[in-house]
Amino acid sequence: MTRRIPASTIRRLSHYLRSLEDLGREGGETVSSEELANRGQTTAAQVRKDLSHFGSFGKRGLGYRIDELRERLRQILGVDRVWKVALVGAGRIGSALFEYPAFESRGYECVAIVDSDPQKIGARWGELTVQGPDEIERLVAELGVELVILAVPAQAAQDIATRVVRAGVKGILNFAPIRLKVPPTVPVEDVNLVMQLEALSFAITQHGSGA
Amino acid sequence: MTRRIPASTIRRLSHYLRSLEDLGREGGETVSSEELANRGQTTAAQVRKDLSHFGSFGKRGLGYRIDELRERLRQILGVDRVWKVALVGAGRIGSALFEYPAFESRGYECVAIVDSDPQKIGARWGELTVQGPDEIERLVAELGVELVILAVPAQAAQDIATRVVRAGVKGILNFAPIRLKVPPTVPVEDVNLVMQLEALSFAITQHGSGA
DNA sequence: TTGTGTGAATCCCTTCACAGCG
DNA sequence: CGCTGTGAAGGGATTCACACAA
Q1: What pLDDT is attached to residue B211?
Q2: How confident is the model at residue A206 (pLDDT cuts 50, 70, 90)?
Q3: Is the predicted pLDDT of residue B67 greater than 70, yes or no?
Q4: Which CATH number fits the domain that encloses residue B21?
């Protein structure tokens, strides 16, 4: 049904959904593409074009009904349901994510925590107990884990990735600074803070010397 | 000197620099654009085009000298020096970043930590002491802070951003889920994990229904 | 009149192809 | 030869502009 959608469009859709929330207006009211555009860094035409890829659910002369648009965006992004997530790596990054409130409120439920450090195995994190790495396959299968957040050191990441994919995981949010080799059917999102810092230092350096 | 460089190019340059490191070869040897391409998700032509924006420092018939290319990439990205960073927000994310080893090894030096929680103020983190938010302007000025990592709750983020920019900060790595309003001369990089999770759930959802 | 939906035009990034240098 | 550097061609995403519906 949907054509090939570029990643930039998805990022914007995610942004529109966020914008709807802090709009401070009732669900029955409407928003215009113009308004949505002002909240992201984009244009009204871009908003309409983005949405038009998925059907036409705006009202001419009025705009988009907020609750309708929200529901539609949730469907498109696939967040109109709960995703079961396993956290692999119970270090600093792992614990930061575990406590991250936006996480659960957006429909991502952490159902398992795994770490290889014997000191951590058995520890209670809220309702969960940290499990050893041997348990991964069983946990994925028994709990129906669909997403894995991979927050382990680089040298351990590929092995874990291979194993969880084989166990049936459908997507990976990867914090390890390596390019994971997984089948093309399993999407991987890389979180790369060094890259983002370098984008900053580049922008600053260019700005100074360029102008 | 340099033209308008798209963000995608910068991301790739950052990647090339990383690839040079885990190439496991001496600095005096050479790499071809082909090899570099195989390590990123790109093509040989793309590598050459990316590099050509900044001059021609490859040798025809041979490739690029590794140490020369590394030095050049560092210059381009602005990481051929140490950047002084202040960490604002000493919560989970903050502590994760503080401990992140890649951080310091890439030339980003954390020179100050700030938090508004009275329980945290005064705590020792390595060589540093957590400071109160009133100190921000003074710290930025006295320590010559150039980058700020903003890891505070959304409602506090804009205020901090405005203040550190006024105090002379040149760039911000923003973990708060809002779009910061800052002058166009101050680049902001947003770290948005929810967006990345949504990109995953979109990809998985589409994959299942589309094919 | 207002604001959507959408072909057409534009712009920009990527890829191609090859001249040219080592 | 081998591999870079780069104009030219190609493809995709953004922007424009306007018909049309409420």
Answers
A1: 38
A2: confident
A3: yes
A4: 1.10.10.10
| One domain, residues B58 and B102 | no
Evaluate if pTM is beyond 0.85: yes
A209 in a structural domain? no
* Pair A13, A114 in one domain: no
Instruction: Please indicate, yes or no, if residue A102 is contained in any of the structural domains.
Output: yes
CA distances from A80 to A165, A175, B163 (A): 24, 25, 38
- pLDDT at residue number A194: 95
Average pLDDT, chain B: 94
Indicate if B54 and B155 belong to the same structural domain. Answer: no
- Total count of domains within chain A: 2
Task: Answer yes or no: do B198 and A146 touch at CB < 8 A.
Answer: no
Q: What angle do CA B92, A194, A132 make, to 5 degrees?
A: 50
SS (H, E, C) B135-201: HHHHHHHHHCCCEEEECCCHHHHHHHHHHHHHCCCCEEEECCCCCCCCCCCCCEEECCHHHHHHHHH
Q: Which residue of A has its CA nearest to B15?
A: A195
Q: Hey, are the CB atoms on A199 and B189 less than 8 Å from each other?
A: yes
Average pLDDT over residues A88-115: 92
Verify that B53 and B98 share a domain, yes or no.
no
